[in-house]
Amino acid sequence: MVIDLNTAARPAFDLFSGFSLCATLASLETAGLLAELAATGRLAPDSHGLGAPLLDYLAARGIVEECGDRHRFTPLGDAIRADIGYLVWLSRGYGLPMRSIAEFVTGARGTDDHAGRDGSGVAVGSALVGARDLVPQALDLLDGTRVTRVLDLGCGNARFLLEICRRFGATGTGVDEDSRACAEAEREISAAGAAGTVSVRQLDAGDLAALPGIAATDLVVTFFLLHEILAAGRAALVDHLRGLARRLPAGAHLLIAEVTPATTEPGQLFSPEFTLVHALMGQRLLDAPGWHAVLADAGFTVAREVRPTMPGALLMLARRAG
Ligand SMILES: C[S@@+](CC[C@H](N)C(=O)[O-])C[C@H]1O[C@@H](n2cnc3c(N)ncnc32)[C@H](O)[C@@H]1O
């Protein structure tokens, strides 16, 4: 029997095209070229003559189609664009450490400095992901909550902080330890014309004494930060949250977004890769009961929680007890 390798299932080629498309689309998105293509049907400027072969490639993969002398996104292309943040987060944020993952296993490379991730790629990718799959649900969750002064720990590019402050007429401070994330945040704040009400500080969120204005804060936001503190152990995380609760005024709220760890369920869209990337940096994740227990130990009561559309994620609004 002769097996025709051209027609037999060769699943490695799904990964081959997936890798290439993920890297290509994330890069085009980051440079604003996907938006440009959607608006004009062209890839411009095209200083190296790469525009035509790139469009041919995207057409061959069903992302765009020719329309006269222009190109437009196909329904597949539109659906991928809607989730482009996940590709930016992975390819730009963690592409480099993921491509050398074996070196972390063998010990040739250490996981210090977050295994060499790109802080700006993580911040920009997270914000794009959040805009679709987290922010609408988070704003709903906050409905009816007093929000006059917001502190966003691990604020990334501060887009969510800006959105909350705009929605509630609040003032806000974002804190991020990564200089590239802070630079993105400064750009966003200035582009939004919000420099009078929202600011960003490059600080370690673990250093509670350094956090600005905490005693007057009625909402602390931590989206995808607390697992970073958990890397120092559960006791360190509880200590951190307990210290936060002690410094906040009575009735203050804490809004948390986290991704739960991968399970053995088939067909998980996001958690296995999210879990792996965080293991690479020496971080582990907690499931919903785990977060409830940590918050209770730290003096917070969960007031509301939802499962947002971000696969495997949870959103919790907790209140400082007492
Ligand atoms: C996954 S990003 C999320 C960004 C933003 N919260 C969002 O949802 O779009 C996590 C952010 O936390 C920041 N971060 C990690 N550890 C931190 C720490 N100890 N102190 C302050 N920021 C930290 C990272 O630099 C990164 O920008």
What does this structure look like?
Helix 1 crosses helix 5 (about 85-100). Strand 4, helix 10 and strand 5 (about 200) form a beta-alpha-beta unit. A seven-stranded mixed beta sheet has the order 5-4-3-6-7-9-8, with helices on both faces. It has a two-stranded antiparallel ribbon with strand order 1-2. It is an alpha/beta fold. It has helices spanning about 10-30, 35-40, 50-60, 75-80, 85-100, 100-105, 120-135, 135-140, 160-170, 180-190, 225-230, 235-245, 270-280, 290-300; strands at about 65, 70-75, 150-155, 170-175, 200, 220-225, 255-260, 300-305, 315-320. Helix content is about 50%, strand content about 15%. The termini are far apart. The structure holds S-adenosylmethionine (SAM). S-adenosylmethionine binds near residues 123, 127, 154, 225 and 228.
Please specify the SSE layout and strand pairing.
Elements: H1 12-30, H2 33-40, H3 51-60, E1 64-67, E2 70-73, H4 75-82, H5 84-99, H6 101-106, H7 119-133, H8 135-142, E3 149-153, H9 159-168, E4 171-176, H10 179-191, E5 198-202, E6 219-223, H11 226-230, H12 234-247, E7 253-259, H13 271-280, H14 288-298, E8 300-306, E9 313-320
Parallel strand pairs: 3-4, 3-6, 4-5, 6-7
Antiparallel strand pairs: 1-2, 7-9, 8-9
Helix pairs in contact: 1-5, 5-7, 7-10, 12-14
This protein binds S-adenosylmethionine.
S-adenosylmethionine (SAM) binds next to helix 7 and strand 4.
What is the CATH topology classification name of the largest domain? Answer: Rossmann fold
Mean pLDDT: 93
Mind telling me the CATH superfamily name of the largest domain?
Answer: Vaccinia Virus protein VP39
Report the top-level CATH class of the largest domain.
Alpha Beta
Architecture of the largest domain, CATH level 2?
3-Layer(aba) Sandwich
Structure ligands:
S-adenosylmethionine
Listing every helix as H and every strand as E from the N terminus to the C terminus, the arrangement reads HHHEEHHHHHEHEHEEHHEHHEE
Total strands: the figure is 9
